[in-house]
Specification:
Number of helices: 3
Distance between the termini: 53 Å
Strand content: under 5%
Helix content: over 70%
Number of strands: 0
Largest sheet: none
Number of domains: 1
Shape: rod-shaped
C-alpha cells in the first residue's frame, strides 16, 4: 500500500483494499467527511457481510471439489 499521509487518503486506500466499489468508496468518504459515523458503520458492515458471503460460497465450492476427488479416489480403490 502506498504511503498516504492524510486521513481521507488512508481511508480511501483502505476501502479500495477491502474491495469496495468506486461508488461505495465515494459514499463512505462523504459520510466520513460529514461525520456520519453510524451510517458509515452500516455501509461497512454491509460490505463485510457481502465479503463473508463470498467466502462461504467459495467454501461450499471447495467442499464440492473435495467430495468429487474423494469419490474418484474411492472408485479407483474399488477397481
Amino acid at each position: 500500500m502506498p504511503h498516504i499521509s492524510n486521513t481521507q487518503g488512508r481511508l480511501r486506500q483502505n476501502l479500495i483494499d477491502a474491495g469496495c466499489s468506486p461508488e461505495l468508496v465515494q459514499e463512505c468518504l462523504a459520510l466520513a467527511q460529514g461525520q456520519q459515523t453510524e451510517e458509515l458503520r452500516r455501509l461497512l458492515a454491509r460490505q463485510r457481510r457481502a465479503l463473508l458471503d463470498k467466502v462461504h460460497q467459495n467454501e461450499k465450492r471447495i467442499d464440492c471439489l473435495d467430495y468429487l476427488v474423494y469419490q474418484m479416489e474411492q472408485e479407483k480403490k474399488q477397481n
